[in-house]
Design goal:
Layout: E1 6-16, H1 21-30, E2 34-45, E3 54-56, H2 58-70, E4 77-80, H3 86-99, E5 105-108, E6 113-114, E7 117-118, H4 124-133, E8 139-140, H5 144-151, H6 162-174, E9 179-186, E10 190-197, E11 201-208, H7 217-230, H8 235-255
Parallel strand pairs: 1-2, 1-4, 4-5, 5-8, 8-9
Antiparallel strand pairs: 2-3, 6-7, 9-10, 10-11
Bound molecules: 3-hydroxy-5-(hydroxymethyl)-2-methylisonicotinaldehyde (PXL).
């Protein structure tokens, strides 16, 4: 009998809005992987809404995972998402040092913004620290906005060209990243993901735009990539699966008139994710 895989997910807990841990827990569990959560903050709802309650968890994180150290826990993967401050990035780096070895897959989603805009908690210092954190990653999954911020490029249509995407990825590789998926490259009718795999080279996976831009889609996407990487699935195949799943959930969310900030109704399609 093979051992069950286990991943630590470091992300915020937003009670409403379908993002971060409330997405990762079900999506990763559906793949048969034990998903162990470390909250970076507790929010009533994500920051895409005008008003929200935000309880920062920075001061508690080390106490929290020191108990995991006492339990002797080990992880096959570590996946990080929304981090609210520079100090929190230092804590995540400490967690990676303590809980990973050469077999641990590290997936870093440098959550900072979308659609050319940064989120409410963004600062240039946080960006610099997140850029350094990606040195540890086996896979990083920035959207185009985040990839531009991390490499100091302006966010514009020119960056959607293959030559620019290669240039961006080469800069990220120079900073220590290994494999990169630039997500959510939108055109009028299509949405593409640019995959830069250090073993396999680069490729693009495009699908028809199925509906409105929605909150939390990056978290659904990265959770599938994280689970698949622990299952040994090739990055390109994983990106196709994740993109098709997100596209289906966006379409259904539009049909059900779900407000875009409420995310995607992935719950209706969990069957597709069960391994
Ligand atoms: O899905 C990205 C995300 C995660 N966590 C929080 C957010 C956002 C985007 O707005 O506000 C708290």
């Amino acid at each position: 009998m093979k051992k069950q895989k286990r991943i630590a997910v470091i992300n915020d807990f937003s009670g409403f809005g379908r993002c971060s841990l409330t997405v990762s827990l079900p999506v990763i569990s559906a793949a048969g992987i034990q998903c162990c959560a470390i909250p970076t903050a507790v929010l009533s709802n994500h920051t895409g809404y005008e008003d929200y309650f935000f309880d920062d968890y920075t001061d508690k994180m080390k106490y929290y995972y020191s108990k995991w150290e006492n339990l002797g826990l080990e992880f096959d993967g570590i996946y990080t998402g929304f981090l609210g401050s520079e100090r929190q990035v230092d804590i995540v780096e400490d967690f990676i040092k303590r809980f990973s070895d050469k077999h641990t897959k590290i997936i870093i989603d440098p959550v900072m913004g979308d659609d050319g805009r940064t989120y409410a908690t963004f600062t240039p210092g946080l960006c610099r620290r997140l850029g350094r954190l990606t040195r540890h990653s086996d896979i990083m999954t920035p959207n185009l906005t985040e990839a531009c911020i991390l490499t100091g490029m302006p966010f514009n249509d020119k960056q959607k060209e293959i030559s620019s995407l290669i240039n961006i990825c080469e800069k990220l590789i120079e900073s220590g990243a290994k494999n990169i998926v630039i997500t959510g490259i939108e055109d009028k009718n299509s949405i593409s993901n640019f995959i830069y795999d250090t073993q396999e080279g680069y490729c693009v996976y495009s699908s028809e735009k199925s509906g409105k831009t929605r909150a939390g889609t990056g978290d659904v996407f990265a959770s599938i990539i994280a689970a698949d990487s622990l299952r040994g699935i090739k990055l390109e195949d994983s990106v196709k699966r994740a993109a098709d799943f997100v596209s289906k959930a966006i379409k259904a969310s539009d049909e059900l008139n779900i407000p875009p900030q409420d995310g995607v109704c992935f719950e209706l399609f969990m069957r597709d994710l069960i391994v």
